[in-house]
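User: My instructor asked us to take a sequence, write out its structure as tokens, and then describe one feature of it. I'm not sure where to start. Here is the sequence I was given:
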Amino acid sequence: MAGEFDMTETEWLKAKNPDAMLRMVGPRFSARQWQLVACALVRRVWDLLPPGPSRDLVAWVERNGGEAMPAIASHWVADLETAADHATTAARAAERLVVLATDPDADPESFRAMDARRTNPTAPLYQASCRYAQTAIRLAGESAFQAAEVVALLATIRPGPLLVELTREQVRRGLLLRADASSHTSSALKLKAIGDEMADRANGRKVGQNFATASEYVRREDEFLGYRHSSLMTSKEKVVRKALGKILHDLAGNPFQTARFEPAWRSDSVVGLARGIDEDYAYDRLPILADALLEADCDEEAILRHCRGSESHTADPLHLRGCWVIDRILDREPEFFSGLPIIAASQAPQRRRSPRRNSVLRLDPVTVGR
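Assistant: Let's start with the prediction itself. The structure tokens for your sequence are:
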């Protein structure tokens, strides 16, 4: 497959084009590795998932990756649908508590804006504040539902490019909705505070002027939220793209160089530590694993640096289930690692390149219906 990848080792290490990275290593991935990529993306919205079936399924897939999803779909899907509904309700209730102060009547069931009569010049501020509060509650619920729904993909889509593509898009949308909810909450509380301050200063004079001032505050805030949404869309796309690059770094290492691993390094201490890190999702113990590897006479710099988080190409490494060092120690994915290194296009005989594509959907995906 050498020469088919429009990527160099330097570009891989910079991880600025995760789609190209995935196209390069994806054809070599096992079903388990595809599932682990999807699970790692789901963990970007982990805080939006309530304890229960949603988190349980992610953990199950991480531990049992590679098994046929149809066998577990019927066991999980009904519970996941219920969990999504509960997550939506809980998120809305939590957001309501935050924005409740914006309700002039302190009504826990609804937000009733004050009358917009010109004798009440602060009314536009309270009306907008209530409008933003209602939107924040709706968006918070939608973000929680989106996060819960993305977990269902793990039970209904077979491992492969389609699973990762759909997971990435829904995670991005969940993050965007949550950020949008926070922006509307902030705006609601801000306009409520301005309205209270204007009301405290009101002396019955310049009512028309104060009404116009309040309306201008609202206009500017509406405009700000429009710009903010556009900025958030770009920001969340970058967050997910950056996360995918780090995920591939952790699962595949550097596919342009084969890190040497000697069976003699699998001492009882090394294997025990690796298994404990994997089972407990305790990747903060990796530096301890590095010390154990040293005691086992491991001198492979790439392995030791990965465990210590001191790789030169990243200052903020990400570790997750499927970490290439843990997999090498526990002798997982032997076919993938035996196929390394992958030769860069610039190092291989040149062929005519086909047009670059942004999508990772190079393989024929197979879905399993609900």
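For the description part of your assignment, you could build on this observation: The longest helix spans residues 207-252. Try explaining in your own words what that tells you about the chain.
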